Amino acid sequence: MKRLLLIAITGFVLSGCTDKKAQQKAILDEVIKVHDKVMGADEDLMKNKMLLDSMVKHNSTADIKDSVYAYLTKVNLADSAMSNWMHKFDPDHSSKSDDETIAYFYDQKKQIMAIDSQITTVVERSNKYLIKMKMK
């Protein structure tokens, strides 16, 4: 009877570990999926940055330069947010507990989703501005 109870407890503990590992993998996969989406938008961000930089160099009107600098600031902030996140992100948490790893990945998902929103907004707004200025 004790042997059966020990086997049952061992099975329960192992299945709990498996569930946590599966949960870790699932949330990490979600983080990577959002990251990949953001990287696609980051290409558009860089393209708009180059166009805005070109506008600064080829325009002498102060009010146009002011509006271009305002968009460049937003583009640079979004780009910096992505770069900072990428430099700090660490997918290897083998030395941490399962719960710590899961919490970390959830926090990273929250951060990368905020960056995704920031970049999407900046790309949309700078696209509209560039179209208005006939640079696209």
Question: How would you describe the overall organization of this protein?
Answer:
- The protein is mainly alpha-helical and about 140 residues long.
- The chain has helices spanning about 1-60, 60-90, 100-130.
- The chain has one domain (about 25-130).
- It is built from 3 helices and no strands.
- Helix 1 packs antiparallel against helix 2 and helix 1 (about 1-60) packs parallel to helix 3 (about 100-130).
- It starts with a helix and ends with a helix.
Would you spell out the secondary-structure blueprint of this structure?
Blueprint (H helix, E strand, L loop, with lengths): L1 H57 L3 H27 L9 H35 L4
Helix pairs in contact: 1-2, 1-3, 2-3
**What are the segments in which pLDDT stays under 50 over at least 5 consecutive residues?**
4-15
**Tally of helical segments:** 3
Helix % is over 70%
Q: What would you call the shape?
A: elongated
Reading the helices and strands in chain order gives: HHH
Rounded average pLDDT: 87
Structural class: mainly alpha
Task: Write a brief caption for the model.
The chain is 88% helix and 0% strand.
Structural key phrases:
136 residues; mainly alpha; elongated
